[in-house]
Amino acid sequence: MHKHLRLTLATATAVALTGGLLTFAATAATAAGSAAVSAADADFNGDGLADVAVSATGTYVDGKAAAGALTIVYGGGAHATITQNSAGVPGSAEKNDYFGTDTAYGDFDGDGYDDVAVGAQGEDVGSDVDGGTVAILWGSAAGLKGGMTVADPRPTKHDGFGAVLEAADFNGDGKDDLAFGTVSASTVDITRGGFTRSGATGGSYTVSAAVHSGDGWGVQFLQSGDANGDGVEDLIVNGFELDTEEGYNANFWFPGSASGIKSASYQKLPAGIITDVGDTNSDGYDDIVFGLAWDEGIAGAQLGGAALIGQGSASGPAYGDVQTIDQDTAGVPGGGEAGDGFGAELDLGDVNGDGHLDLVVGTPGENLAGVADAGSATVLYGAADGSGITGAGAKFLDQNTAGVPNSNEKNDVFGSDVHIDDLDGDGRGDVIIGALGENGNNGAVYALRSGTDGSLSSSAGIYTSTVGISGSGTPALGANFAD
């Protein structure tokens, strides 16, 4: 049974953290919503440059194994590492908290700075072992500073609160809501926007999905976007289907509305792990990108993986066409091989600045020149006429590619997570790639800047030593980026 990397590794990694919140040079804030940052980018310090939150859930903190940490890669080049022992962060670092299990960003308090919600699925809450917790860390001109705990709406109904997060405006009121899933339950909790620093919210409600619950079978992933073009963001829920004995992977689309998400209104979608949502073909409807990396029972998965793009429509995504791209698609480098994991992670953004979405695909299980699981990533570009993602001109990236730091090594799993953000405000999306297996599972992040000539390069990687995390244990930096 497949489990997403960010959740699987949360239970298997540990590290020692040297120091708490790192200091960094603050940049004077510009007006929130600067033209340099798109709505799809996080900007925690309001400087107009996109920022990226990277989890290292296996991090040791003050001797506590797998307490977890979150590293912020600021667009201006600074870094900061935050734990539950950092000043102003709720709670305290404890063994197997897995702070950073999942993350989601939005401007939750409406002050013009993006904030980030951080889950710690292993947190013991009073006598509730592994009850889990979620903290919102507040954006400011100096970056993320301080935070508050989000109340679990139903603490007796599940364990692992904070394991699965998604932020979106599901009722169109202009306020970011937070959706919570757990792998111990099939119900999604949604807390309405209206978050304040004193702990107030707009209230909570639940959505039931037709997936298994209990013993790791509950909600696996959440994603959001406007797939029917009505101006209100929708919720997509991933889990293991109830009506099949084998429990094959399944996805369900719930449309947003003025009253939020309703359990009775949903469409079943193609199987695969939902990884991003965006209008890939410029028709006004967001499309849903699914990864078919290693899921059993899914056509194409046994050949090394694939990416599916389910087209949105006025009637919902179940009525749109489905496009399949794999390593055997014309123009796509490489070839499909068992265990490659093509599609394990995917992200949409405009890499070349032509106004059309591109897709970066992680292939963390790729074997390269006899090096097992070195990993790779592939950039698939949107057609110049805006008609969608194609294999034409695709760019293959590994650690032996010119401009990519380091070199291919066994079990680096380069491509463990992938992201596109404009880190330097030049109008082109930069490609950020995680390699959670780098340096004996210390992990690493490679922020490749997009050049006017189409190049993608970085002068150096971001390693545990770069951001103040000890090389002891297995922190797995780069296993998960906030989205």
UniProtKB/TrEMBL annotation:
It comes from Streptomyces aurantiacus. The keyword Glycoprotein applies. Keywords: Glycoprotein, Hydrolase, Repeat, Signal. GO terms for cellular component: integrin complex. Pfam families: FG-GAP. InterPro entries: FG-GAP (IPR013517), Int_alpha_beta-p (IPR013519), Integrin_alpha (IPR000413), Integrin_alpha_N (IPR028994). This is VCBS repeat-containing protein. Residues 1-31 form the signal peptide. SMART domains: Int_alpha (SM00191). GO terms for molecular function: hydrolase activity. The keyword Repeat applies. It comes from the Bacteria. GO terms for biological process: cell adhesion.
